[in-house]
Amino acid sequence: MIIPKEPKLTVEQLTAVTAIVEEYDCKLQVIVGHHRSVYAVLGEERKTVMVNRILGLDFIDRFDAVDSPFKLMDSSSELAQHKIVLGNHIVGEGPFVIAGHCTIDPKNPNLFIESAHAVKEAGAKAIRGGVWKPRTMPYSFQGDDASVKILMEARSQTGLPVDTEVMDEHQLRIAVEAGVDILQVGARNALNYSLLKSIGQMTQNKKIAVLLKRSMGMGPINEFIAAAEYIAAAGNPDIMLCPRGTNPTMDGYRNYPDESITPLLKEKTWAPVIVDPCHSVGRAKYVPSAALAAIAYGADGVIIESHLDPQRGIGDDPKQSIKPAVLKQLITDIEAIWATKNRILLADN
Ligand code: PEP
Ligand code: MN
Description:
This protein is α/β, with parallel strands linked by helices. It has twelve helices and 14 strands. The strands form four sheets. Strands 12-11-10-9-8-7-14-13 form an eight-stranded parallel sheet. Strand 8, helix 4 (147-158) and strand 9 (162-165) form a beta-alpha-beta unit. The longest helix has 16 residues, at 324-339. Residues 102, 130, 134, 165, 186-188, 213, 244, 276, 279, 316 line the site of phosphoenolpyruvate.
C-alpha cells in the first residue's frame, strides 16, 4: 500500500506510480479514504526493485506491505483510521441503528413512508426497505423496480440515509443512479465475487456504503473478511460487516445466532460491525434481547426490521418485524449498554 505525502496524488503523480507498478505486473487501486487517499498495489507487492523505485519518488511518504491476506481490511492496514459517514452519523461514534420494513409493498407506499417516519422518531439513524428480495420460491413476490421511488421518497421526507439489497447489476445500477446510501449484499450473495467486484467498482467515490451480510454457510471468519476485501479492492472501503445468523439453525430460531463473532471481527479488521438480529432469531419477540447482546459484544449498531403494522407487511415483516414503539425502547436500552464503559472490545489479560 502506497501512502503519499499529500492527502492524494496529482494526476501526473498517479500516472508515474501506475506506470511503475504495471511494469511489475501489478495494478494500482485508488482507495479514497475519509482523510486521505491510499493506493493499493494489487498483485505481488513485495518486489524489492518496484518498492524501491516507488520509495524513490519524492512525493511518496511510505510503502506499507501489509503482512496479511487482507491488505485493505486488516486492522493493521493504513485504512484502519477510515471512517464511514452516513447522514449525520459517523459509524462507530454512537449506536448506528438501521430500521424499517423487510420489504417495500409497492401497492401500499404510504405504509412504508409512515413506518419510516415512525422509526426515525424512535431513534433510527437510517431506513431499511427491500426493493428487491431474494426469495426461496420463484413464485413468491420478488420485489419491484418501482419501489426505489418509494424508498427515495422516504429518504427525502425523513432526511435519513436509506438501505436496500441488490442482487445483480441491473438492480445495482438502478440503486446507484437513484442515490441509495447503503447497498446491502445479502447472505445468499456474500460469496458472489463478481457481484462484490461490480459493487466495489460502481460505488467507488460515490459516498455509498455497503452492508455485507455473512452468508449462512460461512464458517471461517477469514472468508467473511475476504468477501469485504473484494469490495475494497475494487475501489470502495465503506464496508460494514453484518452477522445475521448461520446454519445449522438453532432449534426454535430461524438461524444460529452469531452476534458473538463481533469481537473476532473487531480484532481482525477495522470494518464496523452492524448485527442483524431479525434474520438471526427470526421471531419479533426474541429480537430485542439479541440486539442488546450484539451491542454488548461490541457491535457498532444493528439493522432491525420494524413495521407499524407487521401483520399487514410482506416478506419477513409479519414474523420478525418489531413495532416502532418496541424499537424506541430498544434504542434507549442500546444507548444504555453503549454508555457503559464495560463495552470493552478486547480485554487485556
Ligand atoms: C433481508 O435483509 O431482508 C434479507 C433478505 O437478509 P439476508 O440476506 O440476511 O437473508
Ligand atoms: Mn427480511
